[in-house]
Amino acid sequence: MPTLQAAALWLMLLCAVPWSLSAQDGPPPLRDYAIDVWTSRNGLPHNSLRDIAQTPEGHLWFATWEGLVRYNGLDFTVFDRSTTPGLRDNGVGALLVDRSGGLWISDSRGNVTRRGADGRWQVWEHRPDTPQVLIQAMQMDSHGRLWLLYEGKGIGSLGPDGTFDYQTPPADVPMAMSFTKLVVDAQDRAWVGTLDGLVVRDTDGVQRRAPDSWGLGRGLVWPYRAPDGVMWVVAGERIYRMQDGAPLLQHRLPGVTHITAMLQDRHGDLWLGTENQGLLRLSRHGLERLPTGLSLPGGRVVSLREDAEGSIWVGANGGLYRLRETLFSSFTERDGLSGDYVRTVFEDRLRQLWIGSASGLDRRDAQGRFSPVPLRNNVGKSPSVLSLAQDREGRLWVGTFGDGIFQINEQGQRLHVYGNAEGLPGGNIRAISIDRDGVVWAGTQKGVIRIEAGQVGQPAIPGMPTGLITALAHDAEGGLWIGTIEGIRVLRGDRVQAIDLQRLGGGRSVFGFQQIGDAMWISTDRGLYRYQQGTLARVGLEQGMPVDTVFQLVPDRVGNVWISSNRGVLRTDMAMLNAVADGRAARVEVEHYNEIDGMANSQANGSSGPSAILRQDGTFWVVTAGGLSMVDPLRLQRFRERLAPPAVIESVQVDGAPLHWQGSDHNSIPGGRRLSVSYVGLSYLLSERIRYRTRLDGLDKGWIERGQQRSVEFIGLPPGDYTLHVSAAHPGGAWSDSEAVWEFTVEPFLWQRRSVQLVAALMLLAGLIALYRYLINRYKASNVRLARMVKEATLDLQTQTVNLQALNLEKTELADRLAVQAEAFERQAREDALTGLPNRRAFDEALARDFARSQRSHHPLCLVVLDIDHFKEVNDRHSHWVGDVVLVEVARLLASACRDSDMPARTGGEEFALLLNDTRLDEAAQVCARLRGLFHDHPDWAGIPGLTVTFSAGLVELDAADRTPMLLYQRADRALYRAKSEGRDRTAIG
């Protein structure tokens, strides 16, 4: 039997694969792209982007009127006249990446700058005989000559030897009306677009208008050279392709009169930017426009760029936006749904898709069109639909919120409505299940009812729930599984079995059932439960699930398991879930998807049914608070097989001061310093979720995984040669082979150098010899004087000496006792006796002092209040002595994680505080994360095997509302309380 089942599964997969693969040929329709927008509110210095470039290591560069901008997927870095290195002028005209990876930048005063791949900058300032105007475009020919298009002044060039060449354009050439497009073709001819026709500079150096025989006209005409080398010409609403030396009309776009930018992507599709008609695409889907209603930057589309990952970047006069292909596709009211708050989705036997929402019921036909189903309640409104099911005769049963149960046919025509008159309890119907005999079971707010032969009844069986029903499902043996807000009941014949979830993890509310083999998987407010052969197992937060509440588990045909939740869709595999449930593995690995991946809304809805399904074509569909979302699992591998992001080092700081680390001349660091290295993985699709690892050759024995931490810090490295390696990976993907590598040397201290040590040893030896001779001579002279003094007044001197020595000894002992007492009193007043940390009194004084200093100087000040989680259990289970040892070890970890300027303190019991001077909130959060890592890495607290200790923390930064130190402390204390209430072992920011 297992062999037959496996064969059947393979047959289903083979049937599904051709359809899915054909659906994935080429890019999806334009409506399925996710769009991200950036403006000056998001860190851009200016909203008009004149050009976009990507250098080989992966950084994106934007030309704006307020400087050059570098983007790494997370942060914008601006280079202008105020920065070092900087530009000669803030107005950047054009960008060009040359064959060696250097970035050329032109500005509005005729200057040209090059940033080499090694990070070094070189400037060619305009000459007196070259125009001091905006350089609109740049292109490089096969000889390395850089051609420059001066606004309204014609073209010039910068030779490989660094010399400018410029000639005033002929009077019969309309260079005074030049457009922003300059192209150099394979024959090194320069093509220039103008508002009065096309101009070509031939290899003989003569600039001429394009021949009239080409039929391009005299309006806005400009050239474009595609990545494959093909020349295109845009003339009004016409797009030509150069073939055999003449333009061949390829597309005519009536109504599109001002095309201002063009891009041919890796699929061969043409993207067109316009003056005031947005972005267009010519593809296998025809001429496509972006969906209406999007809030996108307006005005002229000035620049287009496809990055290394296939995303399309659009620079407009009003900002920057990007179109990216996503894993999920989503459908909303914009696509024809009656409402975006979707509660249930169901596929009938005709492969029609039925969608229930708060605004009614919709049906999606085979062509993908949505149409509303005309259901009306007693007041003529569309009912809010919560549940769907289909019986053996093909009739659909529709459960609603307060309007009973509708029975309709497969064409959407209403057949019957069951309400109060038929005996149906009032309230909402969140679940419907139909058994093998055709009996309809529905969950109400007053228990389970059954509909058989048109009659509504409520089973009078002891143990049946009488409250709100949240989920229903029949298993393979015909048993009815009933989910409530107080656990599970299973109806088998006339016997009810109760399954207690609270004893294992505290589960109460049940949202969904899914039978897989002989196991029933249960979705609850405390993760997933598996009931198999009378045994209950759980996979929840403690086992690696990122959320508590999950709504529906759906296995697909390629081994994935999809789980809907309030915080997006989770994905893992069935084998891993079973391994964790069996106890063979400690944690489950989960991938997390949300709006970034194309979901309509990260809040998937539950307590309705079905809330997620696997369609017959193998696609997974899930309802959300913002629409309906779907994913084809066969696309998952395509997304997961994306090249791992290359890692680059962004900055190096030594004791907080920037270091120009690129190049072999800048790799020596004085000993004993704090070295901070920031890095990033250059991907623009999953930037927030990139994982990192580092290895410092000379210190680390292997790779150290850093999670999503984007910096590493080393303090007091021993002298020697080191090589830092940084690698990056997408979630669930392989580590990048393109590592960031930096070699550096830590110089020894002066006293650690062997030559200095040898000189010091020789000097010490010579000093000892000199001291020996001096002491011998002094001894001899003292003997002579002493003999004379003894001879003169031996008795008197001895008496005085004895008296003085006794008096001096008494005074010394008294002073020592007083000093010891004073030191002890001072320490008791300001120091915690157990941990040696400053106590609450010392901390309050420091807080008041630093609070006043920060308000005067406007320096940042952060406060962290920490509380040891479950410390009482440590005392109760292991003794107060063990608890004291834990507090001492906590204090030691706090002290080791602090800088000299920071102040850790024990403020009482298991509560500690950390005062961080000159520290921003994000830096303080990194300190808390590093401290949490030290806690997690600390083995066997107090020497007790297996004893782990965590902390909850509240983190705040001083702001204008904190008028007193106590207000700042209270705000941190409230954040601490929130961290505890959210599950402990975390830092809450107040």
What's the overall geometry?
A: flat
Strand residue content: 35-45%
Number of strands: 70
Low-confidence stretches: 1-24
Supply the helix-strand structural class.
Answer: alpha+beta
Spatial extent as radius of gyration: 38 Å
* Strand order, sheet with most strands: 59-65-64-61-62
Largest sheet: 5 strands, mixed
Average pLDDT for all residues? 90
Short description:
Helix content is 20%, strand content 37%.
Descriptive account of the structure:
The protein has 990 residues and is of the alpha+beta class. Helices cover 20% and strands 37% of the residues. The strands form 17 sheets. It has a 5-stranded mixed sheet with strand order 59-65-64-61-62, with no helix packed on it. Helix 6 crosses helix 7 and helix 7 crosses helix 8 (921-937). The longest helix has 77 residues, at 754-830. It is flat. The two termini are 59 Å apart. 38% of the residues are buried.
SSE blueprint and pairings:
Layout: H1 2-24, E1 33-38, E2 49-54, E3 60-64, E4 67-71, E5 76-79, E6 92-97, E7 103-107, E8 112-115, E9 121-124, E10 135-140, E11 146-150, E12 154-158, E13 164-166, E14 178-184, E15 190-194, E16 197-201, E17 207-209, E18 221-225, E19 231-235, E20 238-243, E21 246-252, E22 259-264, E23 270-274, E24 279-283, E25 286-289, E26 301-306, E27 312-316, E28 319-325, E29 329-331, E30 342-347, E31 353-357, E32 360-364, E33 370-373, E34 385-390, E35 396-400, E36 405-408, E37 414-418, E38 431-434, E39 440-444, E40 447-452, E41 455-457, E42 469-474, E43 480-484, E44 487-492, E45 495-499, E46 510-516, E47 519-524, E48 527-532, E49 535-539, E50 550-555, E51 560-565, E52 568-573, H2 574-582, E53 591-593, E54 612-614, E55 620-624, E56 627-631, H3 633-640, E57 647-654, E58 657-659, E59 668-669, E60 674-681, E61 691-697, E62 704-707, E63 711-715, E64 720-729, E65 740-746, H4 754-830, H5 840-857, E66 861-868, H6 871-878, H7 880-897, E67 903-908, E68 911-917, H8 921-937, E69 951-957, H9 965-981, E70 987-989
